[in-house]
Design a protein that fits this description.
Helix content: 25-40%
Largest sheet: 5 strands, mixed
Number of helices: 3
Order of helices and strands: HEEHEHEE
Number of strands: 5
Structural class: alpha+beta
Strand content: 15-25%
Strand order of the largest sheet: 1-2-5-3-4
Length: about 160
């Protein structure tokens, strides 16, 4: 049965997806004590990237912001896979967002707001976090955006 966080996602018109399978030799998320660390989550939808390319060139900032939102949703699925229940989230500690950027694109923070806003909408005050938004030359599979999160859980 879905808990309060998944019910909130449903109110937002979202469904928690299946965990995105790893593309290489790593786990989508690991738990250490009360912390869950996700691997970088690409904006995969049903096993595929809906868009590829650089933000500020082939991908608009608005498209990339929506993709960052998808990355955050995929990160929540990865968290649930190890925590068992998203209602165990005490707080989102940190979000790191990577934006494959055209050489003159400087709007990385606005793109990663897509992930931050989704976490805030789903988790309320527990979704407020520290964050980095980094522009990079290229990401796996030519994804425009990649997001990782660090979560603190209630209990061990």
């Amino acid at each position: 049965m879905a808990g309060a966080v998944e019910a909130k996602l449903a109110e937002l018109g979202l469904t928690l997806p299946d965990v995105v399978p790893p593309l290489a030799s790593y786990q989508p998320a690991v738990q250490s004590g009360v912390y869950v660390y996700t691997s970088g989550q690409l904006p995969m939808v049903e096993g595929k990237l809906p868009v590829t390319g650089k933000v500020g060139a082939e991908v608009t900032p608005d498209e990339a912001k929506e993709l960052a939102r998808t990355c955050a949703l995929n990160a929540l699925a990865a968290v649930k896979s190890v925590a068992g229940d998203l209602d165990r989230i005490k707080r989102v500690v940190k979000v790191v967002g990577f934006v494959a950027s055209a050489s003159d694109f400087t709007g990385q923070p606005a793109v990663i707001n897509g992930a931050s806003e989704l976490l805030g909408a789903a988790l309320g005050d527990k979704g407020v976090h520290a964050r980095s938004a980094v522009g990079v030359a290229v990401l796996p599979l030519d994804a425009p955006v990649e997001v990782e999160v660090q979560i603190e859980l209630d209990g061990a």
